[in-house]
Structure formats: C-alpha cells, structure tokens
Design brief:
Layout: E1 7-10, H1 28-41, E2 45-48, E3 50-51, E4 57-58, H2 61-74, E5 79-82, E6 104-107, E7 112-113, E8 118-119, H3 123-135, E9 139-144, H4 147-159, E10 167-172, H5 182-196, E11 202-206, H6 210-220, E12 224-227, E13 234-236, E14 239-240, H7 244-257, H8 265-272
Parallel strand pairs: 1-2, 1-12, 2-5, 5-6, 6-9, 9-10, 10-11, 11-12
Antiparallel strand pairs: 3-4, 7-8, 13-14
Length: 274
Amino acid sequence: MSDPCIICVAITGSVPTQADNPAVPVTLSEQIESTHAAFEAGASIAHCHVRDDEGKPTADPDRYAALMEGIKAHCPDMIVQLSTGGRSGAGRERGGMLPLRPEMASLTVGSNNFPTRVYENSPDLVDWLSSEMIKYNVKPEIEAFDLSHIFHAALMHKRGQLVGTPYVQFVMGVKNAMPADRAVFDFYRATVARLFGADAPWCTAGVGPQQIVVNEWAISTGGHARTGLEDNIRLDKNTLAPSNAALVERSVALCEQYERPVATTAEARGILGL
C-alpha cells in the first residue's frame, strides 16, 4: 500500500489536565510549542481546543485566533482544525471561532452519551454550524461517535449542507459510546464507501489504550489516523506519553510498518480537497 496517510494530532482537548500528565499543553505558548514538535514529527493537521486562564475549556475566539497565529508562524503549512465540540461552550458559542476561517473544523452531527453526560448536538445547532462552515469556507471533519452520524452526514451532503466529499472520523472507545470493535470499524469503512464513494477519505480516533489499536486498523486498511494527548495520555499502562510528538511518532512507525508514506501538508490538502 503506497497511499499517503494523513496524521492529525489532537493536542489538548477539553478533559486532560497537567495533573493527569504534565505534558498536556494548556497555555497558548505550550500549545504552540507542542504543535510544532508534532508537526516536525509528521502531523499535518492540528486539532485544537483552547483553555482559559484557569485551564478550563473555552470557545473564546480571541484565544483561538492567537493559537492559529502562533501555529501559522511556527508551522506555516500545517492545517489548523478548530473544535466546535460541546465541552468548550454552549449553543452557538461553539461556532464563535468559525469567522476566523480555519481550513477545517470538527462537526458532530448527532447526539450520544459520554462518560458522565449526554453530548448534545441538536438538529438546529448542527444545521447552523454547517451553514457557518459553508459561509466561511471551512471544511468540516465529521466526528462520528455512532453509525447514525455517518448516515446523517450523508443526508446533509445530499441536502447541500456539506460541501465536497465528507471527511468522516470514526471515534471509538469513548465510554458509553461506540467501543473499539473491529467488526464495527469494518462496517463503518464499508458504509462510508457505499454512501460517499470508494475513494472517499476517512480517519479514526481511538480513546485511551484504544488509540494505537484503531490507528493500526486505519493505517493498515488505507485510512488516516488521529493521535495526540486529547485522546490518550499514555504510551502504555505504566508509562505516560512524554509529548504529543511521541504519540505522532507511534503513528509514523505504523505507516512505515505498512509501507505508507506519511502525508505532507500539500498531500493532505489534495486528499481532503482543501
């Protein structure tokens, strides 16, 4: 297999803290430094959340703007993907950074359970977020926590609410949501091919110890991979990951194992239609 593999690094997220792992980047300077190291290790996409002065999740557009500026200064070709996830804000506040025109943003098109709460994505909010992404020319990454999310993305695509071929990410291993199950993963792949075409790109994100598992499933079958401290803070049960770059390096090693070149930023843009 010789198709390039896109590696996305989810640098911070909304949940991990430096009490969990001191390597989790929280301040803007820490995030920029960590992203640069991950970029140098092979990541072409940075999936970004921001925190406030107390280290809590926020959707503050000014903080997102500062982070984007820093990433562009130190990683000028890297694709920046901002999160519209529900832990960072409520309602339309979640899309308040879209006028910054990042190349990509995450979009969850349905609701599901999380470990301690419901991850609520109402139809009205999803429709509004997708309209804002069209307005500001932002490519959505469809975060599929459930099979129904893939089907709803297909419906939105048919309606013209998603421009271009949807890029679907299979999120597996979140407690109370879809587990990392190989048969389900294979069905997800087949469903994306059936709904969006055999050449439609897709990726996976595994949570906790499932990160490396689903990375390997994706890389070995022609998909793309997300890694990073947002989803997993360990190299193994007894060892904390020393950096986002170290997790990227694990994905790069899998690419080498399965004889797939790591996608450059230019190749990633070509694959994603950016």
